[in-house]
Amino acid sequence: MGAQNGKDLLVKVDMTGDGQFETVAGLRATRLSFNAETVDVTSVSSQNGWRELLGGAGVKSASISGSGVFRDAATDERARAIFFNGETPEFQIIIPDFGVVEGPFMITGLDYAGSHNGEATFEVSLASAGLLEFLADTGAEFAPGDPVDPEDPGDPTDPVEPPHPDDLGAP
């Protein structure tokens, strides 16, 4: 994977609760952070006094921050509603050529600013509010029913057709 455009790191919000995701309008800079708390299980019997951590036991979290130009688009209205109503809708974070992170987030900060001779801007901060799922970008396109699609193995009772002799590369 080569270098990626920063503008392709997208934050999308479920606009109506039915899986209709739209990109948050006006974002210029976006950051996604994953965190995991540690659980220290060090004791007097720890090897040479080195700290020991209990794997998989800490609380996992993610945070998103972004800033951009205020557009007064439908997604801006949705962000305000999410904040003031304390909602935790589904968000998607598109990481170019890597994958998609999806799950519930709460908007924990929403700031607006502007200067006399400049554009109106905003900053938004989000905190994960439940289980996040990651779907890797494999770069492969699958047709429904394609037996090599790991998400859709096809009907196992379908007969497998032998290859045509012309497809075997015979001279």
Explained architecture:
This protein has 171 residues and is mainly β. 7% of the residues lie in helices and 36% in strands. The chain contains 1 helix and 8 strands, in the order ββββαββββ. Strands 1, 2, 3, 4, 5, 6, 7 and 8 form an 8-stranded antiparallel sheet that branches. Strand 5 and strand 6 form a beta hairpin. The longest helix is centred in the middle third of the chain and has 12 residues. The radius of gyration is 23 Å and the shape is elongated. About 11% of the residues have low confidence.
Strands, helices and their partners?
Elements: E1 10-14, E2 21-23, E3 27-36, E4 60-69, H1 74-85, E5 90-95, E6 99-113, E7 121-128, E8 133-136
Antiparallel strand pairs: 1-2, 1-5, 3-4, 4-7, 5-6, 6-7, 6-8
The low-confidence parts are 142-152, 154-160
N-to-C CA distance: 38 Å
What does the overall shape look like? elongated
Q: For the report, how would you describe the main beta sheet?
A: 8 strands, antiparallel
Query: What is the number of E strands?
Result: 8
Number of helices: 1
Rounded to an integer in angstroms, the radius of gyration calculated over CA atoms is 23 Å
**SS strand fraction:** 35-45%
- In round numbers, the mean pLDDT is 84
Which bin fits the share of residues in helices? under 10%
**Could you give the order of the helices and strands?**
EEEEHEEEE
Instruction: Classify the secondary structure makeup into a structural class.
Output: mainly beta
Short description:
By secondary structure, the chain is mainly β. The protein has one helix at residues 74-85, and strands at residues 10-14, 21-23, 27-36, 60-69, 90-95, 99-113, 121-128, 133-136.
